[in-house]
Specification:
Elements: H1 2-13, H2 17-40, H3 45-64, H4 69-85, H5 89-110, H6 120-139, H7 149-154, H8 162-170, H9 183-190, H10 205-225, H11 237-241, H12 244-276, E1 283-284, E2 287-288, H13 298-303, H14 307-313, H15 316-327, H16 336-351, H17 355-380, H18 382-388, H19 393-417, H20 420-429, H21 433-452, H22 455-463
Antiparallel strand pairs: 1-2
Helix pairs in contact: 1-2, 2-3, 2-12, 3-8, 4-5, 4-6, 4-8, 5-6, 10-12, 12-19, 15-16, 16-17, 17-18, 17-19, 17-21, 19-20
Length: 464
Amino acid sequence: MAAPLLEKLSESLGSPEPAVRLILSILIGYPCALVYRRFFFHQPATVIHLFHTFSGLALAAFNFGSQLYHSAVCILVQFLMLRLMGRTVTTVLSSFTFQMLYLLAGYYYTATEEYDIKWTMPHCVLMLKLVGLSFDYYDGGKEPSQLSSEQKTAALPSVPSLLEVCGFSYFYGGFLVGPQFTLRSYQRLVAGELTDCPGKPPNSVVPAMKRFALGFVCLVIYTIFSPYYPDSYYLTDEYEAQPFWYRCVFILLWAKVILYKYVSCWVIAEGVCILSGLGYNGVVDGKHQWDACANMKVWLFETTPLFGGTIASFNINTNAWAARHVFKRLKFVGNKTLSHVTTLFFLTIWHGLHSGYILCFSMEFFIITVERQALALVRDSPLLTKLANSALYPLIYVVQQFIHWLFMGYPLVPFCLFTYDKWLKVYSSVYFCGHVFFLVAFLIMPYLRKALVPKKERSQKKEE
């Protein structure tokens, strides 16, 4: 009965059935959170773990059928590693190796040339959870003086039970699309600590509904406009026949629309976490905060004219996970650039095995490097600083936003088209304008600095 209904719903919405199942599953998180608040908030931890485990398994079965065994296998193996191998570097390395290879094998055997919603989608979220769990358990065996403030908050004082790991892994608010959170946060949720009313469910209905409403608006925007900006249009003769300026503007508008697909899912899922209490983040300036699970800063995303600002506002928890467990753990290397490159390489293969991911993240590194050089130039040049703060700023902002979104869309082309033959065709049609623009900017930056920054200022910076 459910299958024909879903088929009809997907036809009426013009969306594939797996996408409809995914959205429905994220929305089902809200009634699950309400049931937890009403019937399970005061129950023993074991009962809460069982509720979270079976509700998450039901969602997995609804979306992926018998393929839910992949997540079950990885959770069981991770638990056995923690139990049998203890708080050792070997545990961390074994966990990272097993979970990453399992995910990559999944990508290899299921990959197509299209974006498919299959079991590997939630599994990449699970992979980060389980590897992060091994790091946090390892940190729990260190002296507090050896840990950063982040590590102290997440460190596990004892080995978790299998049921606890299952509840953490399958929690309906983060199993399918994230966000990332630590087992310590989950333990505090189960203990009833994540609330603004001690001993009672949190007053989080209004904050949760605000995120739901915002996510729903983003979903509507995507649903209305995505048919006008399909990925497939890039590969048509019609696109190639359009004027150069039209092809560039299409990339800009397409990028804005395509990203709402991710924004809507993350913001709606965040609302589920807030409703359950997992989003509670303490008190700041006398106000209760509900942003512990925020994966999007939507206002910053919409208004920033900087590439760095967009990255800082987008997929926040995954970026924070990579910073905490990859970038900062490589401090012993003594080279920030190498740590940055290694982190981007990890994110590349974590997303998948297509060449488009490699190109996207390599271009991200190049673009961010050029932007940092440009910002330093504006900051150190009296002329450019004066111009940036002049009455011309509104015009500068509009131009900056156009460049920003044009070249945000540019690396997203291979990210969404995946394969070499497709993204090369698109880049050829716009004469590799993004590559040329940033290569020229990178090459002329030293000469601009020499021309616009006073010699004394350059000398001071060189000494620093």
